[in-house]
């Protein structure tokens, strides 16, 4: 290097050497624990897996690429893919690339603060291994080229001709795939992410980035070094759980259980999630947020139930259906049999329609759920990769009162719901990791015939205080009610000032009655609109007035 340049830093030299044809964003971590760790492009490429990319990048002629380099990933794309065919357009587009680069590091840094100490440094792939490549799609304005960059009757696509095709990293269009992770039974340096129908540089592109990198990183980092829980499979952990939701998608994830690890959003009273992931700087702060997040939803579910139960006597099916068990049998990716279970969402039987329901405990014990917001009737399997099975979302304003406690592996709907509730009550390390991973598999093998069940997990996590999820949830609902009655962060809803549960109750009584009165009107299509709208307003107001649930939700912690 000294023979050809006075530059002493090869990272600086390489970035300058390719800058005519490649825009490089090297995004460092904001976590002081990761200061001075490798994140630059050349040091991420200079290894046995990615080294073959270096010479093609130095020899670009007509293509205009861009790369986002972090301590965990390197994203590859081109200006041509986004139709930026002039210097002016490319320069203007750089701000959008910079924005997405920051969102990617927001997400990775969130995990660097949340992950347990024993695995945190495994995120440092540029430092300790091979950064995961993230390959954008080739869906350019003139069409998707073939692997040689040719397009029928149109100019060749230079990014494939000069780079992606040359290094063997062209990937074709696949209908139905937004993006996918190329992974192995155990994490490997060859792990990669491919975008297909989704654009990397877009609002949803960042959300998809968090989805696919969950598949790559989770077994190494996200569960304290433990692997997926028995009978859950890959897709139970991304959409509807650890993927950061974005409102641009139509898949129902925005407004479902989730946490914002990537986007900076205004705290404007119209948010579902923490507006600023950087505000949560420690695991304790994240756990505090998750407790407030869950308890706000539980308070609203309680208020809804209390308003509904006296009014539906004799026909519970006006408002509720049931999440039931279906015993597993070997099929497709599932190799397990009973007592392992799937979730079966169904209408109430004739007997259940007239079952006496006097308190929220009755809803919990019977594993009832609201009709509104919950997925349609059917079977929900965590190992079934069809759109609404493993990928099922849990709507935040829907009530799921029980836990559908399993004697073995759970179904996908209850798995996601219970995972968030466990995180909210017992914290990330003791609650979330214990529930979603194989942390207690040895205990199950020794004392429970190999069955890593909900019953075993709640007993271990609660130190013997609870033997079923329903026991625990009944207890928690009572805690939430007691705190709510003492008072919560004051809010204003439709001109009414509210600061405790007794002030909240009349609003729910009116909303529920209005919905019930409209159920016989064929012109009304949404029979739960007033109740859901009220729950949404209250939740969003509480989120706003507590600074994104960063501050205390309840006036007095009991």
Provide an overview of this structure.
α9 (283-308) crosses α15 (469-486). The mean pLDDT is 96. The strands form three sheets. A six-stranded mixed β-sheet has the order 1-2-3-4-6-5, covered by helices on one side. Strands 9-7-8-10 form a four-stranded antiparallel β-sheet. Strands 11-12 form a two-stranded antiparallel sheet. Helix content is 38%, strand content 10%. It is globular. A hairpin with a 2-residue loop joins β11 and β12 (496-498). It has 558 residues and is of the alpha/beta class. The protein has helices spanning 10-17, 41-45, 54-58, 87-114, 125-128, 158-164, 203-222, 238-242, 283-308, 350-353, 360-365, 412-436, 441-447, 454-461, 469-486, 501-517, 529-545; strands at 22-26, 65-69, 73-78, 132-135, 179-182, 192-195, 320-327, 341-346, 368-370, 378-380, 491-493, 496-498. The longest helix is centred in the N-terminal third of the chain and has 28 residues, at 87-114. The termini are far apart.
Could you describe the largest sheet, including whether it forms a barrel? 6 strands, mixed
Give me the side-by-side strand order of the main sheet.
Answer: 1-2-3-4-6-5
Task: Tally the beta strands.
Answer: 12
Distance between termini?
A: 66 Å
The residue ranges in which pLDDT falls below 50 over 5 or more consecutive positions are none
Let me know the average pLDDT: 96
Structural class of the helices, strands and pairings? alpha/beta
Q: Strand-residue fraction?
A: 5-15%
Secondary-structure element pattern, one letter each: HEHHEEHHEHEEHHHEEHHEEHHHHEEHH
Oligomer classification: single chain
Characterize the overall form: globular
Number of helices: 17
The Rg value, from CA coordinates, equals: 25 Å
Query: What percent of residues adopt helix (DSSP H or I)?
Result: 25-40%
